[in-house]
Amino acid sequence: MTEIEYKLYIDNVIRRVETARLKVSNHHIVKIVAVSKYSTCQEIEALYKIGQRAFGENKVQDLKEKANEMNDLPLEWHFIGNLQKNKINNLLDIRPALFQALDSLELAYELQKKLVSREMSLDVLLQINSAKEESKHGVMPESACGIYKQIQEECPNINLKGVMSIGAHTDNKEIIQKSFETTHTIFKQLEGATICSMGMSGDFELAIECGSNMVRLGSIMFNK
Ligand SMILES: *Cc1c(COP(=O)(O)O)cnc(C)c1O
């Protein structure tokens, strides 16, 4: 694809996001995070050139390498993957704009300790395993509100901004929709929460219609 063809291609993705968000309301603004985990720095730069600023990675090592290699560009990096305790320091070295996948109280306590020792804070989303799938990380929907509050009270260096979910892994649209609705219902109950991150390349329109205001788009943004 030439640069112009790529821009037209991305315009169409943006139009799809627009159409979905306008079904919710004129005032429902949706942010696109381009998930670059299958993409090279050249491909990230091509997307940057046509206006994209927020990028997400799901492995700390990959995030570190790409963020370092591209540090001359004003990119906003999101970490969207599972964080192992022994990688917390590596993640904090990069100072990501948003860590989207805090998935337990235990990890919150570890993160809090490391943040205190560095005298820094971090914007974070609580990941919810809304379809209760064994293969997925995240807190169970019924305990999400309690854990969220507990982190707010006990981890002052963690700035909770909202929630993140991966849609149910199935072709059944109703089940996927239900998983998004579960997360959005929790989101609405949380004090001060502003980000509801749901929706990937295959289900972002449905996620937006269910109230998502942040979509994490990988394959579709990089035309893979
Ligand atoms: C890979 C990934 C995405 C993007 O997936 P696509 O289907 O390529 O859009 C979004 N969120 C998370 C947590 C991911 O790991």
The gyration radius over C-alpha positions equals 17 Å
CATH architecture: Alpha-Beta Barrel
Quaternary organisation of the protein chains: single chain
Given as residue ranges, the uncertain stretches (5+ residues, pLDDT < 50) are: none
| Main CATH class | Alpha Beta
Mean pLDDT: 97
Structure commentary:
The chain is an alpha/beta fold. It has a single domain, classed as TIM Barrel, CATH 3.20.20.10. It is 44% helix and 18% strand. It contains eight helices and eight strands; from the N terminus they run αβαβαβαβαβαβαβαβ. The chain has helices at 3-24, 41-49, 60-69, 88-94, 105-118, 141-154, 173-189, 204-209; strands at residues 31-35, 54-57, 76-79, 98-102, 122-127, 158-165, 195-198, 214-217. The protein has an eight-stranded parallel sheet. It is globular, with a radius of gyration of 17 Å. The model has no long low-confidence stretch (mean pLDDT 97). Bound molecules: pyridoxal-5'-phosphate. Pyridoxal-5'-phosphate is lined by residues 35, 37, 58, 80-81, 166, 200-202, 216-220. Residues 35, 37, 58, 80-81, 166, 200-202, 216-220 line the site of pyridoxal-5'-phosphate (PLP).
